[in-house]
């Protein structure tokens, strides 16, 4: 699919995997609407991160837990060019056990992770599919929806109850969404990253990062955001990739903790 006549929406695109994806899409010629949280007062960090991607990147500040954010971002993208790709990278990884020293897992904490990681993904899929169904097919596709799960959806570790639930849901909905949207010639593919060098991972202590790196068999390193972005471009380019969750993990398998 030629992306020079296309627009895309990337959530979580001010940082990490989403930022690398927005970069790759702009380099491929697409107009990219980048959704991320608004900058805190006195900061322009997220707006700056998007503006460094050049004039084909357009910052759309908003919270993905509000479905209007995705609807407005999609509308902004469609004004630029037909929407061909929608990629959900917005996410949080708040840890939490069912029973911790601080007490039982709080329902609000659990639901917040679900609202961002799963609800935000579904909002973008819904808004994007509604817009894509009116596209003329390009190389057989009207558009492609790409979600981000995690290897935690399959090898969930102790202390990640909300996160694994949110990512398991994203992995599970991939096939039924692809089945449903096939009649519109819209593909749905989910990437399940292993351990990637992003600000989300930077919060871990060095020892924990090194232990995770050591579990990544080959290549023997953490993933780079560019590895993820390359996969997004490959998914868009390959018309047979549909309804699948792809592990992108250097053969890592996570231990119980
Ligand atoms: N880094 C990894 O090792 C790894 C592994 C597996 C899965 N993932 C997943 O990949 C995705 C991207 O993670 P990352 O590592 O790039 O993290 P990151 O923290 O660098 O980027 C996440 C972005 O999402 C944004 N965001 C968070 N909540 C939001 C909200 N409510 N509305 C809008 N934007 C919001 C953040 O501001 C941030 O810019 C996440 O879904 C994460 O769970 C990451």
CATH architecture: 3-Layer(aba) Sandwich
Order of helices and strands: EHEHEHEEEHEHEHHHE
The total of beta strands comes to: 9
What's the Cα radius of gyration?
Answer: 18 Å
Parts with pLDDT < 50 across at least 5 consecutive residues = none
Label the overall shape.
Answer: globular
Number of domains: 1
Which strand order does the major sheet show?
A: 3-2-1-4-7-8-9
CATH class assignment: Alpha Beta
Helix content: 40-55%
C-alpha end-to-end distance? 41 Å
Sheet of most strands: 7 strands, parallel
Oligomerization state: single chain
User: Which superfamily, in CATH terms, is the homologous superfamily?
Assistant: NAD(P)-binding Rossmann-like Domain
Number of distinct helices = 8
Summarize the structure.
With 257 residues, this protein is of the alpha/beta class.
What do you see in this structure?
Helices cover 42% and strands 17% of the residues. The strands form two sheets. Strands 3-2-1-4-7-8-9 form a seven-stranded parallel beta sheet, sandwiched between helices. Strands 5-6 form a two-stranded antiparallel ribbon. Strand 2 (31-36), helix 2 (45-51) and strand 3 form a beta-alpha-beta unit. It is an alpha/beta fold. The longest helix is centred in the middle third of the chain and has 26 residues, at 107-132. The chain is globular. It has one domain (3-248): Rossmann fold (3-Layer(aba) Sandwich). The chain contains eight helices and nine strands. The structure holds nicotinamide-adenine-dinucleotide. Residues 11-12, 14-18, 35-37, 63-65, 89-93, 116-117, 148, 150, 193, 195-196, 198-201 line the site of nicotinamide-adenine-dinucleotide (NAD).
């Amino acid at each position: 699919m030629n992306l020079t006549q296309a627009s895309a929406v990337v959530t979580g695109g001010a940082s990490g995997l989403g930022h690398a994806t927005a970069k790759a899409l702009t380099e491929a010629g697409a107009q990219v609407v980048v959704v991320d949280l608004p900058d805190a007062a006195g900061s322009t960090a997220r707006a700056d991160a998007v503006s460094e991607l050049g004039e084909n990147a357009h910052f759309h500040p908003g919270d993905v837990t509000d479905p209007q954010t995705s609807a407005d971002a999609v509308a902004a993208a469609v004004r630029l060019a037909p929407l061909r790709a929608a990629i959900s990278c917005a996410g949080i990884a708040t840890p939490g056990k069912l029973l911790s020293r601080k007490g039982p897992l709080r329902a609000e904490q659990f639901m917040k992770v679900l609202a961002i990681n799963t609800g935000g993904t579904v909002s973008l899929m819904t808004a994007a599919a509604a817009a894509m169904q009116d596209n003329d097919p390009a190389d057989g596709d009207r558009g492609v929806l790409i979600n981000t799960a995690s290897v935690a959806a399959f090898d969930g570790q102790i202390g990640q109850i909300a996160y694994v639930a949110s990512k398991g849901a994203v992995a599970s909905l991939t096939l039924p969404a692809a089945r449903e949207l096939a009649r519109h010639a819209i593909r749905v593919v989910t990437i399940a990253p292993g351990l990637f060098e992003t600000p989300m991972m930077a919060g871990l202590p060095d020892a924990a990062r090194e232990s995770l790196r050591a579990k990544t068999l080959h290549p023997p390193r953490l993933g780079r955001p560019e590895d993820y972005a390359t996969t997004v471009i490959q998914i868009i380019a390959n018309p047979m990739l549909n309804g699948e969750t792809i592990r992108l993990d250097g053969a890592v398998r996570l231990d119980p903790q």
